[in-house]
Amino acid sequence: MTAGGAFATLASPRDRRRTPPGARRPNGQERAVAKTLAEIAEHCGAALEGDGSRLVVGPADLEGASADEVSFLANPRYAGLLGTTGAAGVLVGADAECAREGLTLLRVEDPNRAFSRVVELFADGWSPPAAGVHPSAVVDESASLGEGVSIAAHCVVGPGVTLGAGAVLHPGVVLGEGARVGDGSVLHPHVVLYPLCEVGARCVLHAGAVLGADGFGFDPTAAGWEKVPQCGRVVVGDDVEIGANSCIDRARFGATRIGNMVKIDNLVQVGHNCLVEDAALLCAQVGMAGTATIRTRVILAGQAGVGGHLEIGAGTQVGGQAGVTGNLPAGGAFTGWPARPARQALRETAHLKRLPELARTVRELQERLDELEKGAR
Amino acid sequence: MTAGGAFATLASPRDRRRTPPGARRPNGQERAVAKTLAEIAEHCGAALEGDGSRLVVGPADLEGASADEVSFLANPRYAGLLGTTGAAGVLVGADAECAREGLTLLRVEDPNRAFSRVVELFADGWSPPAAGVHPSAVVDESASLGEGVSIAAHCVVGPGVTLGAGAVLHPGVVLGEGARVGDGSVLHPHVVLYPLCEVGARCVLHAGAVLGADGFGFDPTAAGWEKVPQCGRVVVGDDVEIGANSCIDRARFGATRIGNMVKIDNLVQVGHNCLVEDAALLCAQVGMAGTATIRTRVILAGQAGVGGHLEIGAGTQVGGQAGVTGNLPAGGAFTGWPARPARQALRETAHLKRLPELARTVRELQERLDELEKGAR
Amino acid sequence: MTAGGAFATLASPRDRRRTPPGARRPNGQERAVAKTLAEIAEHCGAALEGDGSRLVVGPADLEGASADEVSFLANPRYAGLLGTTGAAGVLVGADAECAREGLTLLRVEDPNRAFSRVVELFADGWSPPAAGVHPSAVVDESASLGEGVSIAAHCVVGPGVTLGAGAVLHPGVVLGEGARVGDGSVLHPHVVLYPLCEVGARCVLHAGAVLGADGFGFDPTAAGWEKVPQCGRVVVGDDVEIGANSCIDRARFGATRIGNMVKIDNLVQVGHNCLVEDAALLCAQVGMAGTATIRTRVILAGQAGVGGHLEIGAGTQVGGQAGVTGNLPAGGAFTGWPARPARQALRETAHLKRLPELARTVRELQERLDELEKGAR
């Protein structure tokens, strides 16, 4: 147990969101110096309303912010917090109203995006990986390394691998024979590309992601199961992000294909021969069975599952934990198990809640009817 | 964004499934040379109906195939595609009918399995791992290495480990003290066996699979939780396949046991002291809580969950995302939450859909009854 | 297939739970010598009722135990097994009754916890990791290493990292720049801490766990998605256990925070900016979307999901596979999709089962009413 006694609650909201005071940055320097609100306004293109000379030391949310922090209001639902926040300044949109004395407003078109600029301004930096090959890495002599690549300690780069210019392999990355990584892509620790798998340019693969493990195909036999050979590959487009410990299986033949700009969260499973089209978004723990097709800009919320050989039309959104058991048209919103139009699922859920009452009503009707029938006889 | 413009759709179906033209194999050779349909027929034991002299360069599905590819028809649902496929030849079963001119049929008993032979014929090969121990691997001198084992770069083999003949450890595999791997088993990159865990012969463990992490056992205390010691092991039979990043926990005492011929997909969780009997099949993201028992040939579809201390009878199939909350008998089909007979779940789902209408009907009955009762008074 | 023939069932219950006879411990010694029941009673503070001189060689469960094993009865549901168990002795609670001849009882206050002491007594030990830094590890010279730390083969320790006294890094652990690990914490193979992430004292992180991958934040644009910079960290308290291949994302700014004594199972996803308070317990495959808050001692059962920005009150328990779609109060029990009070969910499920019958009843009422109305006209 901690010195402070059991079950002291962990953290004030403020504590939760801040770098501990006095923390030194890994490069040995003190925290970034404070910035004035005017400097911040200039950095993110905001119009200043109020005192621009106040100094702040970092970003915070409205609820947890203190007088040396800057915050933002993106969702009108939280507008009330403008009246109570301790922040020195708040990024707000065009229509936010707040006449509170002592609170400086930084008016921008899109407070959420502008705040990302502020977050970056105060971010504790860390060293970019050095270009070159660490002596402990094992790189096959037939591999082709682009200009400025960085191959960290204990990586393994197989025969015939191609690395684009500026590609970064963090420690422990393993690239199988003939794998390809495009320009500027970053593979975090322990990412594995099985042989012949390809990743495009400017991708980010987080730690432990596995591309190209065998698809899960077995034919039943009298003795058990016979493996269906998995001889295809995984081909990933440009500007793709794949989360930690996610898995994308190689195809039976041809390729499991992930389009450009696709964003995949952690612990996601994409089965063999799936097609995930451009800019689709797969949240954490989503699972897609084999040969499923996800059209462009589809969004699958967390833990949703898609059955094999199904297709989901462009732009359709599937709710968290939903189970897709049939093809879904484009442009819809679906949820529940089995996945059905979200509006219908909500209505059914509401009716389900009233089902005990309905059953009682039916029993009463039955009794009244019995009574009436007696009289009618 | 990609040079080719935003949101160009990724890929034609054809593009999706083919090695890019001109791709060189990692060993530096050109793609496998073309084969005649007659050669293919001979390779997979098919009876040729049509022109056997046509050359093909690879396998494809019916929809995406072009004139230099060979395809197959396994599911009668797709029989219509025989009339439109661009393939030069198609593997079909005994009863497929297609009199289309210019389409060669390769008639076999089981087109799906025969096609696996064709897929292998055209597969881009990659080098088998070299036998021997890579100089960067760290192998304890007390480990026992069978004949012809292959231990790749950056592996760690602990004291007392036993590796059977021909076992393959891909880069970064870690075998804890006293672990055992049977003859011919292949452990892909970063697989971890905790101390004393055992894997049988001819198994395949995909990248990132973890066998033997502590079971999740904690007794509540006033201060929080007290760990229940997890002193057992994991014992895996022969001919087992375990998917990428799957986890099988060690037992509290004794062993968590995986039978022979069991097939486990990616991201699956098997809790401590579970028993998974021979030839059971666990699809991706399935979770089994502690001390669950899965009898022989059970199939758990993707994302299904099984509660602790439960048993599922031999040959039973559990649907995707189903939640098993009680013992299930042998030979059944169950689905939904909580898992119930599949037929019942479907019926309930259909009735649920009509529930809003039912509620309306009941209201109408109520009104009609009110009216009648008024008249009867 | 195995030599012994296809589908011989794997294992008798007994076989399932025991170290194979004759197994040698990795250190080359034979199995731990047998203990008398009297020795065991003394070891775990039990009152002996019966013959204390009998020798046992290990722990087993009631059903599978043989005459040279000791077992325990914790759950009254299994009291009947006292009459049939083959065990030489059984740990029982104060009120267990069993007059069976030849069965020795070891009476304790809490048989489950006392049995943990017995399990430890017979556990096959394995060597503790040696203190010091393995020559193949790559440790930045600016890292600060506490007394007695153990850094195994192929670890990578970045600039500015701090390791507390007695911390253990198993093979392949990667610690990014500025990461911190507290006194006595153990990181199993391939654990990854991204830069600046912190783990407290006496924690256990199992193989493949990833702390600090980017939170999943993307703003929609005409061209696809724009990444929301993820500049925060992950901060984990003391006495925390995190399961194999689990993922905890870094915050957008500030920290994703895991309290003291939190226990997290395998394959769990914790999104960016979440707060998991002291002694919460997250079972396998649980998923928490961004900025969710889990108060102290909350329990999320396996595969449960929590939506973004939601809060679950202290001590509340959420059932397996439940989908939390709104805030939940403290001290409750919730289950199902969407998560609702467990009692209500059970009632609705029961009514759903009777829905087909209800629909039939309503049709009958309709007919009887038609008949009555005809008569009333």
Description:
The structure is a homotrimer of 377-residue chains. Chain A has 377 residues and is α/β, with parallel strands linked by helices. Chain A folds into two domains: 13-122, 3-Layer(aba) Sandwich (Udp-n-acetylmuramoylalanyl-d-glutamate--2,6- Diaminopimelate Ligase, Chain: A, domain 1), CATH 3.40.1390; 132-344, Hexapeptide repeat proteins (UDP N-Acetylglucosamine Acyltransferase, domain 1, 3 Solenoid), CATH 2.160.10.10. Chain A is 16% helix and 25% strand. Chain A contains five helices and 40 strands. In chain A, strands 8-11-14-17-20-25-28-31-34-37-39-40 form a twelve-stranded mixed β-sheet. The longest helix of chain A has 22 residues, at 355-376. The radius of gyration of chain A is 28 Å and the shape is flat. The model of chain A is unreliable at 1-31 (pLDDT under 50). The interface between A and B is large, with 93 and 86 residues.
